[in-house]
Structures
1.
Amino acid sequence: MTAWEPRITAFLCNWCTYGAADLAGVSRLEHPPNIRIIKLPCTGRVSPAFILSAFCQGADGVWVSGCHPGDCHYIEGNFYARRKFALFKNLLEHMGIEPGRLQFSWISSAEATKFVEVATTVIETVRNLGPSQQFVKKAMNLEPEYEFRKTG
Amino acid sequence: MNLQKTTEKTGSVMVVGAGVAGIQASLDMANAGYFVHLVDNSTSVGGLMAQLDKTFPTNDCAMCVISPFLVEVGRHLNINIISNSEVESLEGQAGAFHATVRNDPRYIDIEKCTACGQCRQICPVTAINEFDCGLDLRKAIYIKYPQAVPLAYAIDRSACIGCGLCEKACLAEAISYADTPRRTVLNVGAVILSMGSSVYDPSGLDTLAYGRHPNIVTSLEFERILSASGPYKGHLMRPYDREIPEKIAWLQCVGSRDINRAGHGYCSSVCCMYAIKQTMIAKEHVSTPLDAAVFYMDMRTYGKDFDKYYTRAKDEKHVRFIRSRIHTIEPLKNGDLNIRYVLESGDVQEETFNMVVLSAGLSPPPSAIALAGRLGIDLNAYHYAQTADIRPVNTSREGIYVCGAFQGPKDIPQSVMEASAAAASATETLADVRWTQTKVRELPAEVDFSGQKPRIGVFVCNCGINIGGVADVPAIREYARSLPHVIHVEDNLFTCSQDTQEKIKQVLVEKGINRVVVASCSPRTHEPLFQETLREAGLNKYLFEMANIRDQNTWVHMASPAKATAKAKDLVRMAVAKAAYIEPLPQVMLDVTNSVLVVGGGVAGMEAALGVARQGYQAWLVERGHQLGGMARQLRSTWQGEPVAPYLSDLIDAVHRHEHIQIFMETQVVHVTGTIGNFTTTLVTQDDEGKEKSTVIPHGAAILATGGHEYAPTEYQYGAHPSVMTHLEFDVAATKQDNRLLSAKLAVFIQCVGSRSAERPYCSRVCCTHSLKSALWLKTINPDVQIFILYRDIRAYGFRESLYQKAREAGVQFIRFESENPPVVSLTPGDPSEPNSSRLSLTVTDHILQRPIILNPDLVVLASAILPNENKKLFEAFKVPANADGFLVEAHAKLRPVDFASEGLFLAGLAHYPKTIDESIAQAKAAVSRTMNIVSKTAIMVGSVIAVVNPERCAVCLTCVRTCPYGIPRIDPEKGHAVIAAVECHGCGVCASECPGKAIALKHFTDEQINAKTDALFQAA
């Protein structure tokens, strides 16, 4: 086993930040390979349950990123995301997840450099926090209930 | 593809110029039953808009909003993009033209090139990057910009040294140094010219020192500097020393409104707004305070929400706006620039800036002027296509239409509107050959896999060496074999190449594969291509999942190949996990009602109804009043001087006569149900005896052209003296040769009456032009009259500037006043025994003398605002939004200026925003074109990635009803749960994530599918 590397799940909207991630590729902007992207139509689709699920499964960090305010392909989906996560972040912190493990940003599809900057910041922040402990153990205890969620 | 020349009418059309206007015109026509040849002399479509960083007044990212259009036009079955080509000649006549097109060599086979970029990596030659305005370098083998369509490289032979390295590197064998020009003859029924604009080159203006100092840039260069994908990656730096500027000056009207040096007497219409945009964006780009100063003559923020934008820049962003004329720019030794300028008062000032942006105007591209010459169409004095106001998109040659900036300098929404208008006009005479040249893809029936376990095939792409050169593709392939449900794996040199696609189709059928995973590039560029292959093999196109192992992996982790391999395995595992859960999403076919309801019987409404009828479909025209014509009944002439009355009576006549139009006078819309393709609207008509009769109309689309009216002033003694009139009353009086006009010795026009006020913070757009035109007319019939125009900014945009010039030449005097110090009109009592003998007295502070002057006018004309008509109930019935000023809100300020966010509903005319009659006509025709995308079809396909409600879990809590950005979910009282119309859902998934009962699932992105990915990610690799 090599040295510990943070594992980060990113929920990105199809229209803006996912496009920025592609553009970073087209522009060959090297950055650390710790992020695994899950593409969604809109950050408005991201349910807090997805984030909890990621932490339960062992994510050290979760990053949600969408379009800038006013740029949303679906008019206002990103505002719903913002509102929801402002609250959810507090709740997570209350549950003992350190601030910094869950991050949000707004990156347009033309902002490849910003994508790389934010991705690097997210990775470094999580790296400094170390492996996520809070939910991983509990997830094992809660397996039956978790199964229920999957089928329900 | 040399075709036989025919003299028969053809259902193909040609669009020349693939900027945003050309793209819109092409999409409109291709979606309404015509085959489109889209010709552009560049290697990619996109035009000027693709070079912009942001767009005003919403500050949207330009590339983000245009790229879905680029992709759509690039993949459209009925659009043939002919890049790198010029139209050499056009023979024949309307309905049956023969166009000879010269395809210049690109030295790359577009069919073979996969845009993998290996050639660019190896090319040893650097050349100037024109896309970045020369601020950057590129290779001799290049792609215009990353989102280019067609997505293929080209060789710049003026830079290429012919070393042959790219030919060796290209595994797709796409390079052909021997490429030569080819000629193609196209049979087309109509031609649309949308060659756009070039940006004025200020190097001829020696006092501005452009070209002599790197820190003096044009606005387009500055746009690239701001762009995140530009030469400085979005970091605001000045070119000379890459220092972050602390003070930037914008100089307006460079190459515009300048008959002396630039020879451009017109206003470029867009520079005021883009300069404001650039000041605001520039301020956002730097962490230190940026001092932004705009040197201008008149601030022309005349469009929808433009004045608010200007106010925001001034008051919130503290941009300095300095009304002045520039004397010279003098470069200083440290790279700074000293500007000498003259204020209105005549004072000469100097100020030093770190950088200067020249707001360069628009001018027609030389290639467009040459083409117009070959086609034999009339140009105006400034070499733009000449059009008449009542036929705003027709050129002088029948069958050739024009739209966008080649018709006159204009912004994006106006270009898009005209593009749709040109599409409607061009196809009007081709209605009987609709759907004759279009292609239909013959597809096998979809195989029913229900009840079968997932049988997943995984295809891993090497992308030449783009993936395989970094990650271990065979290892990834073998890893995929070990994953659950995977029954077939292979790796390909290029998974997207034509021959591989054929092989994949065979494998899918032979092995009974029912889910496909491709691990390659980005779904944003390639998903539709692979989905097409699936569909051709009989699989539903949603039985597909992609793992992005190139753009988001090997291209960004080149330095860590082992980690890139591990990440690729993770991504493949996640994709396979989701694939096991994905289901086919069949689309449902809905019949379409082939008619259009038009609400409003003004010019916009009548043009819309007539347009629909001429396309061969039924139009229902509803007017609540007792006569047709709307505000145009009072208008004397268009700004170019074309009389309105004969046009209007012809239009009313044509509307009455057309067999496909039914008119409902004194009728109101009371109830609307249904969705795109199938609306049902209830109308209530008041008959002569006051009895109400209701009619139920089925229609596939609707156009709202509910119009506007003139503001009734409460200021300037309006109503208290017969010689104080509004400008529409002036038109009526002029038509009647009213003595108040003929005998006037001193006439004063007051601008911005009721506009640009706290109550109505918008510019009514038409008033400056109208007052200039009225003043000029008054001078002609009454040469002795002395005329003053009291204004805040003269907003004679585009070629209307010529009226301003003529008015000054004719001796009309202009006095500018500040909004906080408006003119005061008072009445001096006259002889008490004589009615109306009181005299008018007017006081205004002169902007040059800086002191009040008193005038005693015998005529005062008020340029009163345009207000939208009150239609609250109607708008509610259609569920369409109006803004704070009461104007209808379009789906997107830039690219969907005639659509509502709700599908199937469109808008035109003054209900949208104040506009001149030519602009109303264009917007009405545009609305017609947009409805043709619906009603020209017999059926539309709906469904796929949409939200669906599980009735058993729905608690009728209304959360979805409240959160949907489009207001689609409704509670069905009979069924007792929420319903989401498949035809209307946009598929964002907000409702699915907000629903507290988990009663809503977004197809293809269900909780189960997304969690499967998350779960798979953290299973041990």
2.
Amino acid sequence: MKFVKNFFEKTEPLVQKGAKYHWLFSVHEGFFTLFFVSKDTSKSGTHIHDFIDLKRTMGMVVLALVPVILFGMYNVGFQHFKAIGELQSTGFFALFFYGLLKVLPVIAVSYIVGLGIEFVFAQKRGHGIHEGFLVSGILIPMVMPIETPLWMIGVATAFAVIIGKEVFGGTGMNIWNPALIARAFLFFAYPAQMSGNSVWVALSGSDKVVDAFTGATPMAEAAAGNTNFSIADAFFGFIPGSIGETSTLAILIGAVVLIITGIGSWKIMVSTVAGGAVMGIILNIFAVNAYMELPFWQHLIIGGFAFGAVFMATDPVSGAQTETGKWIYGFLIGLLAILIRVINPAYPEGMMLAILLMNTFVPLIDYYVVQSNIKKRLKRVKTSA
Amino acid sequence: MSDPLFSKKHLKLLTDPLNSSNPITVQVLGICSALAVTAQLKPAVVMALSVMAVLAFANVIISLLRNTIPNRIRIIVQLVVIAALVILVDQVLKAYVYDVSKQLSVFVGLIITNCILMGRLEAFALGNRPWPSFLDGIGNGAGYSVILIIVGFFRELFGSGTLWGFRIIPESWYITHGGFYANNGMMILPPMALIVIGIIIWVQRMRNRKLIEE
């Protein structure tokens, strides 16, 4: 660590105000705090700080995402070789490396574009580089189909960072989850590359697919009335889908990490699942077609429901802040996600829209929770006086 | 007549609405039509010209009548004048550019409810002579046009790959023809027009810092 410290100390005078590389100041600071505890102390206001700062929080979320990322890479290879009928003759590592080579460029594009824009804004506005994009940058690839062209991912990332975040004042000020903004942008701008049956499995033009191959996700199959997909495959994640959303098991591991470390709110996760289950049961009762008859718990393991509930809805910035608010917020997300998914045939997945919609309502929910608390306490004062 | 026809004061009436008192980006009037008709450049330009014509002549007529209109019914009088002019414009469009007129459909009629018109009549024409009122109408119409044309330019270019109906982005670039490119479907939808206008406002205020409210 000694030489790292020396490097930062040596370069520090070069990035001070008026020095040659002054425009790199926040970059220098950003990387310094990545390795060491910040030397700066508070000059006003609060002087006692939690030891979990933004950087540690974000690092922990990325850590919780590792099982999802690794499985996502493996599944990309798995789906590819399954589609061309060479699954038996290909080893585990061949599958994984195929997926790795497919997924890495997507992650790289997301980080380069997003961090590039963050750096530019940090220099222009003269504030430090915020770590918010560390998580968004990995969440964006995780919610994309593998066949989305890289330039589209770049455009969507730029849109999400500029319109979804920087116009509101940067990290911590955004109303909506930036990763979902990126996905929503692509979903409405380039529907042909974001939905349908040909985007979920990586295939190059020369590949010959086996006869039974359709490329459809279990959700698309279910929407078409064919609801007998394999429950085990859907739970473990051996199904076509966005890179990170397929394996409910890997997502559950991430959820456990988030809950144990206290970074993700278990209230939001539980209430989202509850909301989804309630809507599923309601639809079961009033079922008129095969998709509505799908047992309610099966909704929780297909599509992006689990991923959204664990990693998207729990975003501390765009999610509810009050404890009661978290229950309401999560429950409505689950409810709406399943409702949109089943009732509206134009939107194959409701999770993205449900979370974005509830993000919009978060300030309202929080406001009324706070107001009702104030009223309750005022009443108590009056009765005791 | 105290001022000559094109005095500095009169020219300011023409140039101010283009930047520092732009009806769309600064006064935030007439947004609805700016979102609705700008998916392509051609209807945007036709719409801009129609609004400019209606605004200039309504300003002149109201300015001529300003001393005879009873204060209590002035809104009704203004509406009658605007409605008559809009019907005239609508008939002209139908006669000479029928296809664009069909594309614009109700939005020509809805010029009547465009806030820029009532705003200028109330704020300017009721208190000024006909000639400055005419210039004010042309100026504000031009300010409205500039924004419509900018928005229409970007929306048509990225949403359809064409400009004024002519193909700009070659067919061979498209994924459907073996290329890599695809049209941005968002650009066709009104929400993206709102975002484009938002970005124009952002850029304008970065260049003209006086406009930033504290």
